[in-house]
Structure formats: C-alpha cells, structure tokens
Amino acid sequence: MANVLRKEQFILPEGVIYLDGNSLGPMPKNVPARLSGVMNDEWAQMLIGGWNKAGWMAQPTNVGTSIGRLIGAAAGSVVMGDTLSVKVYQALAAGVKMRPERRVILSDKGNFPSDLYMAEGLVGLLGQGYELRTVAPEDVATSITDEIAVVMLTEVDYRTGRMHDMQALTKLAHDAGAVMVWDLAHSAGAIPVDLAASNCEFAVGCTYKYLNGGPGAPAFIYVRPDLADTAEPALSGWLGHANPFDFDLHYTPGKGIERMRVGTPPVLQMAALEEAMKVWDGVDMADVRRASLDLQEQFIKEVEQAVPQLELASPRDPQARGSQVSFRFEHGYAAMQAVIDRGVIGDFRAPDIMRFGFTPLYLDAADVTAAVAVIEDVMTNALWDDPKYKVRGRVT
Amino acid sequence: MANVLRKEQFILPEGVIYLDGNSLGPMPKNVPARLSGVMNDEWAQMLIGGWNKAGWMAQPTNVGTSIGRLIGAAAGSVVMGDTLSVKVYQALAAGVKMRPERRVILSDKGNFPSDLYMAEGLVGLLGQGYELRTVAPEDVATSITDEIAVVMLTEVDYRTGRMHDMQALTKLAHDAGAVMVWDLAHSAGAIPVDLAASNCEFAVGCTYKYLNGGPGAPAFIYVRPDLADTAEPALSGWLGHANPFDFDLHYTPGKGIERMRVGTPPVLQMAALEEAMKVWDGVDMADVRRASLDLQEQFIKEVEQAVPQLELASPRDPQARGSQVSFRFEHGYAAMQAVIDRGVIGDFRAPDIMRFGFTPLYLDAADVTAAVAVIEDVMTNALWDDPKYKVRGRVT
C-alpha cells in the first residue's frame, strides 16, 4: 500500500485540524502562483489571444480527462463547466429525451436537495405528466419499475456517508429500461469509482470538495462514450456547437462530450482546478480508500470510547460508507460550533448531524487523535452549552 | 463632460493598441492583488468559513448591484452567476411560463448565435408546439404579434454594432402582450442603458467584455422588481432556494432576484469581477458614451480617408451604433491577422467583418490615429496577402 499523505502540498492553517474537505478542500500550495501567471502572463499580456495561445479553450476537456482517471472514465468522456446543479439538469434532460415514452424521474430522499430541486424545475418545465418521484434510500431498488425514465442518485449520502451500490443499482435501472445518472459529489477523489464498469449513461460531480479546486470550482459531466454523439445537451450553448466560431444561426451539437459545454468557461477557476489536480499525480484511488478507512475506523473507535452519547449516524460497515463519518447529537449545531471554535473543523447538517470528512492526502492518525481530544472536551464538559454557540448562521 | 480616461488603472501590453475590449476587456491593475488575497487570506486561511466570514455568499447580489448602476437597474434587481447562455435560458423559460397560452419566442438573425441556440434547446425540450421564430433585424417591429410569448433581442449587434431601439421595441412587445428579454452583452459598460425606463421584464449580460471581469467572468440577470417574487427560475438550484441551508426536499424559490441563483458561485471569478468593477467608481455612462462616439467618429473618418476599399458595415448614424465600428472586406480574416500582427488588436467575424471596439476608459485619440496608420499600411500595401495570415484558427 502506497502512502498517499502529502500534507506539504497544501496550505493548512496553524492550529487547525480540517475535517471539512468534503465541503471545501484546502488550497494546494501551487495554486496562487498558477493563478498569478494566468492573470499577469496570460490575461494581461495575451488578452483575447489567450483563448488559443494559453489553451483556455481546451481546458474544460483537458481537466475533464484528468478527473476521468479518478472515476474510471475514458479520456475524452468528461468535460468541465458550470455548476453541479446545471450539470444535473443537463444529464436529466438528456436522459428523459432518451426515454420519450416514460414520464418518471426516480430519486431518493437522501439525495442532495439541489439535485431534487433541479429535477423539480425540469419536470415543471416539461409538464405533460412528467414527475419526480422520491423514495427512501433503502426503497430505491424496489422502486425501479418500467415507468421510470431516469434514475438519479448520489452515490454517497451527504449527511450520513451511506453509499449506494453503483453497480447493482445501475444494473437494476438498465434491466427496467431506465437511464442511470450518478452524482459523484462525495465520490470523486474520495472513493474508487469505475464509471466504465458500472455502464451508467451519465455522471456528474463537483470539484471543490475532495478535488480541492477552490470555492465555486467548475463541475463535471460524464457521458458514456457510445451515447456521447447522440445525447441531447438541452442547454445547447455555443461552446457545445460543432463549429462555434462559424456563428451559424442553428445549433449543431459538437462531437462527443464537447456538446455538453454551454457558455464561455470560467478560465480563472478552471486554471486553479487544473493546478489542484496535480496533487493527484501518481495517486491510486485504492490507496486513498484504504487510508481513508483507516482514519475513519480510528475516529469511530476513539469517539465511541471517549463520548458514548454521540450516536453513529453513518453505516458501521466501512464498505457501506464513503469518506466521512457522521454522529447524531440533539445539540449538534451548538456542539459543532464549539468544536470548530477549538480548531477542529467539521460541519453540521440539519437536523442533528455532526459531520466529519476524511481526506488522507492531508490528514493522518495524529490529526484524528487530536480531533477526538477536542470533541471529548466539548462533549464531556458540555462546552457546547453556551449561548454563543446557539446562534444560527449560514453553515455550508 | 467629465474625462473618463483612466489608462493607468489597466495593464496594457507595450506596443499594443487594444480594440477588442468588446471581446475580452484588459486586466484592471488591482485584480491580481485581490485574487491573491482571496486565495491566501480567505480560501487558505478561512477554509469553509470563507462563505460567511469573507462574504462569498453575498457577492453575487453585491456585484449585481454595482452592475445595476450602469444599466439603470435598482439595487437588488440584478444577480450574478453562471454564463450568459444559462442566464438567457432562465429568462426565456421564465418568460414563456408567464404567457402559457402562447407558443412563439421571437428573435432576429442578428442575435448572437448562442442566444438562438439556447432558445432552440428550450423549445426542443418544451415540445407542444413551442417555436423559435427568427426574422431580419429590421423586421422585428412588424413581427411582434399576439402569437409571441417572448421577444428576445440583443440590443447591440455583435457584428455591426447596429442598435435596436430598446424603449420602442419593448413598448411594441408589451402592446402585443409579450414578455421582453434584452441581452446587454455589448451594452453593459458600453452605452447608457435604462432598464427601469424601458420597463422590460428581463435582461441578461456578460461581464468579460466592457466590464473587464476576466476570461469566463460570471453573467448577470435582471428581473423587473415587480415580477421578481413570481418569476419561475426553471433552473431551480439550491442557492435560489428561500432557505438553502434548511436542506428541504422541495424547492421554494427565494425572495426576489435571489431565486435566479442556481449553484455554488465561482468565488475566484466573482472576486476578480468585483475588483474590476471598482474601475467604474464615479464614472457616468453618459460621459463614456460621448467619449466612445468621439473615438468612433474619428476612426471612421480617418479609415475612410486612408483606405477607401474598406466598406463601413456599422450604421453611419452614431446614435444607431453601439461602441464598436465594423468594416467589410472580402479578405477580412487575413487582413485582421495582419493588423493584429502589427500590434493593433481587433477581431474578425464571419463572413467578412473586421470589428474594432472602442472603450474610452483606456483608449484615446492618439491610439485611434496610431491604429489607423497600421490599418492603412496593411491595406495599402496588401500586407494581408501572405499565406501565413490565411490559416484559420479559432478566433474569439
């Protein structure tokens, strides 16, 4: 097993143990120099010429390919752009068009709300009997019937870390004639994913969590290569056109995954992400997984020994869990604020989830032990029972 | 008339006269320091806390308000995000929902193709007889009938600079019961716009042209304040939700313009744009307009004297023209490459348009004279007739 720890490649503030890389990854050390170059040597000096000379136009597919390696997607089958919500919409819209005789999008109540909202918006626009149906996560398998046009699931539950079985559910969807869309928000860079083996039609994800692309980093979309030349992009913007600079009056979708591009890509964000992806050079996701589970098992064991009143909200079986561990506590919001105040950054998810992310590129066993000591102090001494920790602010 | 020239606030490469700020504005000098701060002091040090502590979450509406001042939109009626193509889609989708009994989106063949493509994508998804109808720009007025749900026009033609009459066409649209959507891509920061006076329902625009926000800077959308609490966002992402951090399973649109937000905003791009907007402090768009027309009139006069074979493609009447001047020339592509090669950067638009943008914040009369001298040299001596200038690359 190769060691994946590379703390020295990140900026981590003094006195902080960061267990929230599943919300926003920390900054890889080389990003500022890269962005400085993009601004001073490319934008400022090349001006409009940067689109060709600096390679800005090709970045969305180049970065897509570097992410593809971590999620089992062939080179040229992933492209970057927009936000995850927009990419969800594109995947869903293309999916329902592939099953014109069906009317139901199936998802589960554990899915990230924005995915459900985007589906609601889409079915509202489509009218004609289109419907979003959401069931409990454990009922998904039995709810995949021949009414279902598209099954849309997030592999790792954002609150509990519970994992769906990607291979099995994709097979069930296909057996029922449905299209499968996977959201990899908490999977890409967190756990091994093999999109090609799963045979799903679409996958989407974000890059500001485990891929450390920075706040608001662009999203990605994968289309199974055999479908990429026929999938309808719905958001048919000019950079998805076969010949964007011909300025035709009619849309002709581009070749393969390129058609999933929409508007002008965010070059500064794309460059930050491209630089951040270099952290993954030579990293094998199987090694990341083993290291992540070691940290998680240590954390669960130490927390349960030290603080019995915290109830594990994540699956106890490590194979059923992504790269985070969540505990339930009635006063979880205040407790998390008290923990953060002492330098251990996790986050809170309503109604009562204290969530801790494990990112073995920059966390080790000593960090886990130190974090547990803080949690123990907060819980044993009820340090959370202070009015200042109970004022609700926006938590992301 | 106040002088709006502030060259010292921009980085402009040595030996370059930049007449392409209508494609990508040059870099305001203070942007790199701001981005460096966002990376090193905010992302790296505050980590997830940056969303609140550094104000990232509020940026899309704050920056929207600073742009609103330049386009006659009240504070809080403009929000940033996504790309212009995506914002066009949101405006169109909301517009057609406001006129459920109508089926036609009207636009013109001079519109920027991506706007037409997004409309094609939308009507394709809607089915049910929805239609995009495009007419010649001069036929728009007579084509606004009671079949039209939404009129979508770009105020300034991207090739010729020809301007539509925003007030008159909006009134015609309203008289016919249609919703009006204006694309201000070549208007915002270029010419005075008074959205409130026009009474249009929606406006959208980009910020990497005259607003100098950088490559891939986020787009904006305006919704008329009396409609902002009822317009349906279509792309109903979590950051447009009334309470995004409640993680409800169902979408409830946020208050006013906030509902037009979709996914996580691109913080680095947003900060670059916010910094770039400081260039406009104390600038009156009426002064910008006067200065722009002075430069344009000088340019047309000097070019026509020096190079009679160039045919003016822009309206001769300055009041009918935006902030650019275009000339037709059969070998316009090669000629523009030859001109660029000599330090005067304009651009080419198929099939035969040589386009020059005028941006009086960083261009003066001496720049115009120097640019004309280069154009004269290239044209008089047929310097464009060189094979190296005829190889087509991507031009943006």
TrEMBL record, chains A, B:
<feature type="binding site">
    <location>
        <position position="208"/>
    </location>
    <ligand>
        <name>pyridoxal 5'-phosphate</name>
    </ligand>
</feature>
<keyword id="KW-0663">Pyridoxal phosphate</keyword>
<dbReference type="InterPro" id="IPR015421">
    <property type="entry name" value="PyrdxlP-dep_Trfase_major"/>
</dbReference>
<comment type="similarity">
    <text>Belongs to the kynureninase family.</text>
</comment>
<feature type="binding site">
    <location>
        <position position="85"/>
    </location>
    <ligand>
        <name>pyridoxal 5'-phosphate</name>
    </ligand>
</feature>
<protein>
    <recommendedName>
        <fullName>Kynureninase</fullName>
        <ecNumber>3.7.1.3</ecNumber>
    </recommendedName>
</protein>
<keyword id="KW-0378">Hydrolase</keyword>
<dbReference type="GO" id="GO:0043420">
    <property type="term" value="P:anthranilate metabolic process"/>
</dbReference>
<dbReference type="GO" id="GO:0097053">
    <property type="term" value="P:L-kynurenine catabolic process"/>
</dbReference>
<keyword id="KW-0662">Pyridine nucleotide biosynthesis</keyword>
<dbReference type="GO" id="GO:0009435">
    <property type="term" value="P:NAD+ biosynthetic process"/>
</dbReference>
<dbReference type="GO" id="GO:0019805">
    <property type="term" value="P:quinolinate biosynthetic process"/>
</dbReference>
<comment type="pathway">
    <text>Amino-acid degradation; L-kynurenine degradation; L-alanine and anthranilate from L-kynurenine: step 1/1.</text>
</comment>
<comment type="pathway">
    <text>Cofactor biosynthesis; NAD(+) biosynthesis; quinolinate from L-kynurenine: step 2/3.</text>
</comment>
<dbReference type="GO" id="GO:0019441">
    <property type="term" value="P:L-tryptophan catabolic process to kynurenine"/>
</dbReference>
<feature type="binding site">
    <location>
        <position position="186"/>
    </location>
    <ligand>
        <name>pyridoxal 5'-phosphate</name>
    </ligand>
</feature>
<feature type="binding site">
    <location>
        <begin position="112"/>
        <end position="115"/>
    </location>
    <ligand>
        <name>pyridoxal 5'-phosphate</name>
    </ligand>
</feature>
<feature type="binding site">
    <location>
        <position position="238"/>
    </location>
    <ligand>
        <name>pyridoxal 5'-phosphate</name>
    </ligand>
</feature>
<dbReference type="InterPro" id="IPR015424">
    <property type="entry name" value="PyrdxlP-dep_Trfase"/>
</dbReference>
<dbReference type="InterPro" id="IPR010111">
    <property type="entry name" value="Kynureninase"/>
</dbReference>
<feature type="binding site">
    <location>
        <position position="84"/>
    </location>
    <ligand>
        <name>pyridoxal 5'-phosphate</name>
    </ligand>
</feature>
<dbReference type="GO" id="GO:0005737">
    <property type="term" value="C:cytoplasm"/>
</dbReference>
<feature type="binding site">
    <location>
        <position position="154"/>
    </location>
    <ligand>
        <name>pyridoxal 5'-phosphate</name>
    </ligand>
</feature>
<feature type="modified residue" description="N6-(pyridoxal phosphate)lysine">
    <location>
        <position position="209"/>
    </location>
</feature>
<dbReference type="GO" id="GO:0030170">
    <property type="term" value="F:pyridoxal phosphate binding"/>
</dbReference>
<dbReference type="Pfam" id="PF22580">
    <property type="entry name" value="KYNU_C"/>
</dbReference>
<comment type="subunit">
    <text>Homodimer.</text>
</comment>
<feature type="binding site">
    <location>
        <position position="183"/>
    </location>
    <ligand>
        <name>pyridoxal 5'-phosphate</name>
    </ligand>
</feature>
<dbReference type="InterPro" id="IPR015422">
    <property type="entry name" value="PyrdxlP-dep_Trfase_small"/>
</dbReference>
<dbReference type="GO" id="GO:0030429">
    <property type="term" value="F:kynureninase activity"/>
</dbReference>
<feature type="binding site">
    <location>
        <position position="264"/>
    </location>
    <ligand>
        <name>pyridoxal 5'-phosphate</name>
    </ligand>
</feature>
<comment type="function">
    <text>Catalyzes the cleavage of L-kynurenine (L-Kyn) and L-3-hydroxykynurenine (L-3OHKyn) into anthranilic acid (AA) and 3-hydroxyanthranilic acid (3-OHAA), respectively.</text>
</comment>
